[in-house]
Every structure is written in structure tokens, then in C-alpha cells.
Write a structure and sequence with these properties.
Helices cover 23% and strands 30% of the residues. The protein has 233 residues and is an alpha/beta fold. The protein has a single domain, classed as Ribonuclease Z/Hydroxyacylglutathione hydrolase-like (Metallo-beta-lactamase, Chain A, 4-Layer Sandwich), CATH 3.60.15.10. The longest helix is centred in the C-terminal third of the chain and has 16 residues. A hairpin with a 4-residue loop joins strand 2 and strand 3.
């Protein structure tokens, strides 16, 4: 199955806003396209990274609606599926997409066993802090962000023009870190990981692509860090 050509040329400027049931949106970087689509009742974001021209592809979170996701990608070129964390709304389409593509499945080391048990899909490679994932000429770096789940991860891609693209799953959103369900220790760990591994290392211009909702930048969120710490969520 090949749906690659359907979205190869962005029709509108990239806004960072995708809506379930609506069309995908595409941000073009020098070497790859970032395709964002919202799926399912919880408006989960899935991101397809497509190396151009007609190169390997990586999918971040096969969340829901496998038919929607399969229309975005080329089944012969999808090499990797990265699941940002083990919560069920982020992998409901994983089995169907793997069956259609034979893509390898990657997940954070401390979520991998739970993901496999719940989804029935074996994890091909477990990821730890500082790991790199290569596909075609592209490389993304892994950061572990403990708190929303034990094995949550973020992925960083630096494009050839120097722009930084950060995929945060449910660990960082516009307005705060991910839900830690009132657990103070989990919040403290997640806040520390997000500040030291993301805000302290990456520039304000970094594009942030969360697991739900609209995009943001680190610069837009940075002034609110003390507020997040004070409120504890």
C-alpha cells in the first residue's frame, strides 16, 4: 500500500493544529517532511517523518485509526514505529500498522514490556536516554522523561538548517508537563527531566510536537516553568 504521494506537497502553511477527522498537515524541512494527523476520540497526534525523496519513514505513535495512518505512509518504506509511552491511546493502531508494513517497533525500555503485554506486539528495540535512531539520512535522539509513565520518551530531530524539532508524547504540552495523577514524586521527577533534558539543552526556537493538541515552542513555555513547579502539575 502506498499513500506517500497524497501528502507529498503541502497545500497550506503549517499551523501546528490538526483535528481528528480532518486532513493531515505537513511541515517541510530540508531533508524530510513532518506529517501530523490527529486521530481517535482523544485527538491523539501521530507524526510521520518521511525522508525525501522517497526515502525511509518513521512513525511516532500508531495511536488510532489504522486506515488513516496507512494512507499517510508508504508501507514499503515505513521502517520504524516509535511509541512514546505505554498508555493505550497511543498504540491502538500499532498491531494493524505493523502487520501492513513489517516495521520495527521501538519503545522506552521501562515501558516496553507493558506495551507488548497490552498490545500483543513485540518491541524490536528498547530505547534509553541518549540513544540515537537512524533512518535514511536522518537521526533522532532519545530523551527519557520519567513521570507520566516510567518509560516515557521524547525524540529530538535537528534539521540541516539548524532548526530543532521535539516530539514529546504526553510529557510536555502547551501549558505544562504531562499528567502525573497527583503523585508528587512522579511530578517532581517529570518536571526535573523536562527542565534539565529539554529546556536546559535546547533553544527557545525548538518546535514542540505534543501527543495531543497544538504545537508550541520551548520559548513560549519557558516563562511558565516556575508557575508549573508552584502548582505541582
Amino acid at each position: 500500500m502506498s499513500g506517500h504521494a497524497e501528502y507529498s506537497e503541502p497545500a497550506e502553511p503549517y499551523t501546528g493544529h490538526a483535528q481528528a477527522g480532518g486532513p493531515p498537515i505537513v511541515r517541510r524541512t530540508p531533508d524530510l517532511d513532518i506529517v501530523k494527523v490527529a486521530v481517535g476520540a482523544m485527538d491523539n497526534n501521530a507524526y510521520l517523518l518521511r525522508c525525501r525523496p522517497d526515502g525511509p519513514q518513521l512513525l511516532i505513535d500508531a495511536a488510532e485509526e489504522p486506515d488513516t495512518l496507512l494512507r499517510l505512509l508508504d508501507a514499503e518504506r515505513l521502517e520504524l514505529i516509535v511509541t512514546t509511552h505505554r498508555h493505550a491511546d497511543h498504540w491502538q493502531a500499532l498491531s494493524a500498522v505493523v502487520e501492513a508494513t513489517d516495521a520495527q517497533v521501538l519503545a522506552g525500555a521501562d515501558d516496553a514490556a507493558a506495551l507488548t503485554e497490552a498490545s500483543g506486539v513485540p518491541v524490536t528495540r528498547t530505547l534509553r536516554d541518549g540513544d540515537e535512531i537512524r533512518f535514511g539520512a536522518a537521526t533522532v535522539q532519545v530523551s527519557t522523561l520519567v513521570g507520566h509513565t516510567p518509560g516515557s520518551i521524547a525524540l529530538t530531530y535537528r534539521d540541516r538548517d539548524g532548526h530543532v524539532h521535539l516530539f514529546t508524547g504526553d510529557s510536555l504540552f502547551p501549558g505544562g508537563v504531562g499528567n502525573t495523577h497527583g503523585e508528587k514524586d512522579a511530578f517532581a521527577r517529570l518536571y526535573r527531566d523536562v527542565t534539565t533534558k529539554l529546556f536546559d539543552r535546547l533553544p527557545d526556537e525548538t518546535h514542540v510536537y505534543p501527543g495531543h493538541g497544538d504545537d508550541t515552542t520551548l520559548g513560549a513555555e519557558r516563562p511558565h516553568l516556575p508557575e508549573w513547579l508552584a502548582r505541582g502539575w
